[in-house]
């Protein structure tokens, strides 16, 4: 097989596996059977596990388990009054026992310990930084670092953060996905956008500013800051992806939108502020849809190399 045919074949594999991943992410509380996922990706049941691991670097079962634990982590952070047993079932686990075991395998602590540490950090209400150094377990350190990063926003800047809650439309997007990228790895994110634009431009799909360039966050950062993320371009509904370029739809609905001109580090500090302070004070809670950033400029062309963007966080009333 020549090089071109090999690339075409590999691209088709990525395209099919991405369809399965999209289905998994949208149906974590359903029965994610091998039969269904193999059918969606158009691979045989016999080969699906091996193909999935070869392309993603992890087993199918581990991917599903981690995705469900990430959803549970989201619920534990943002729904402190919901019983853990309910969160286990809402996240797709068949039993509480399997949930507790899986959570500890992924995060190194139990779900109860994670929730307790989160509430403990919140109850400190951003006290002296010296308290942060005394936290003993990794989850506490992670949550404390969120509080520390939040404090890097000065009070003047916090007052300048304006949040608008509004309805946003459903968006049809093509994407390039990365299942393990650091939250602040701007170089790799840039290369992903370059690959996507190389695919889209010859097809007449790049027409800024009508075309929106988005980063969609598919998971919470782990303790090392690693996430799953897509870089996206909006396209007409009839457009289909191919190869490493997938196609999906971002749900419309109610979003908290923050317009910023800042570094990306400030962006994520603002994100922390929204979750830690704005939500409790404004009668909203995070909804289980994807958080995304709408990029409105090329930072390299900005005089101060700043990013101009809309941060879009899905919300629902308490």
Automatic annotation (TrEMBL):
<dbReference type="InterPro" id="IPR018062">
    <property type="entry name" value="HTH_AraC-typ_CS"/>
</dbReference>
<dbReference type="InterPro" id="IPR050908">
    <property type="entry name" value="SmbC-like"/>
</dbReference>
<dbReference type="Pfam" id="PF06445">
    <property type="entry name" value="GyrI-like"/>
</dbReference>
<dbReference type="Pfam" id="PF12833">
    <property type="entry name" value="HTH_18"/>
</dbReference>
<dbReference type="InterPro" id="IPR029442">
    <property type="entry name" value="GyrI-like"/>
</dbReference>
<keyword id="KW-0238">DNA-binding</keyword>
<dbReference type="InterPro" id="IPR010499">
    <property type="entry name" value="AraC_E-bd"/>
</dbReference>
<dbReference type="InterPro" id="IPR009057">
    <property type="entry name" value="Homeodomain-like_sf"/>
</dbReference>
<feature type="domain" description="HTH araC/xylS-type">
    <location>
        <begin position="18"/>
        <end position="117"/>
    </location>
</feature>
<dbReference type="InterPro" id="IPR018060">
    <property type="entry name" value="HTH_AraC"/>
</dbReference>
<dbReference type="InterPro" id="IPR011256">
    <property type="entry name" value="Reg_factor_effector_dom_sf"/>
</dbReference>
<protein>
    <submittedName>
        <fullName>AraC family transcriptional regulator</fullName>
    </submittedName>
</protein>
<dbReference type="GO" id="GO:0043565">
    <property type="term" value="F:sequence-specific DNA binding"/>
</dbReference>
<dbReference type="GO" id="GO:0003700">
    <property type="term" value="F:DNA-binding transcription factor activity"/>
</dbReference>
<keyword id="KW-0804">Transcription</keyword>
<keyword id="KW-0805">Transcription regulation</keyword>
């Amino acid at each position: 097989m020549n090089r071109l045919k090999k690339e075409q074949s590999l691209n088709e594999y990525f395209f099919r596996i991405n369809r399965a991943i999209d289905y998994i992410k949208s149906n974590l509380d359903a029965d994610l059977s091998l039969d269904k996922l193999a059918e969606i990706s158009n691979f045989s049941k016999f080969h699906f596990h091996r193909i999935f691991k070869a392309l993603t670097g992890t087993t199918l079962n581990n991917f599903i388990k981690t995705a469900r634990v990430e959803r549970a982590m989201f619920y534990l952070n943002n729904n402190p009054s919901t019983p853990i047993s309910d969160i286990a079932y809402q996240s797709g686990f068949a039993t509480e026992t399997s949930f507790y075991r899986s959570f500890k395998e992924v995060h190194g602590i139990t779900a109860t310990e994670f929730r307790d540490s989160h509430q403990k950090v919140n109850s400190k209400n951003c006290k002296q930084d010296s308290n942060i150094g005394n936290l003993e377990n990794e989850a506490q350190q992670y949550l404390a670092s969120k509080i520390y990063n939040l404090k890097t926003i000065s009070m003047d800047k916090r007052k300048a953060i304006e949040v608008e809650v509004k309805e946003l439309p459903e968006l049809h997007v093509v994407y390039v996905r990365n299942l393990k990228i650091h939250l602040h790895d701007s170089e790799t994110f840039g290369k992903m956008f370059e690959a996507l634009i190389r695919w889209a431009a010859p097809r007449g799909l790049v027409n800024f500013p009508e075309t929106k360039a988005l980063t969609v966050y598919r998971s919470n950062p782990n303790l090392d800051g690693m996430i799953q993320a897509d870089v996206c371009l909006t396209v007409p509904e009839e457009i289909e992806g191919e190869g490493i370029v997938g196609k999906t739809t971002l749900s419309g609905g109610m979003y908290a939108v923050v317009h910023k001109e800042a570094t990306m580090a400030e962006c994520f500090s603002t994100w922390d502020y929204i979750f830690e302070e704005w939500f409790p004070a404004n009668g909203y809670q995070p909804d289980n849809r994807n958080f995304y950033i709408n990029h409105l400029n090329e930072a390299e062309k900005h005089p101060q190399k700043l990013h101009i963007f809309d941060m879009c966080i899905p919300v629902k009333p308490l």
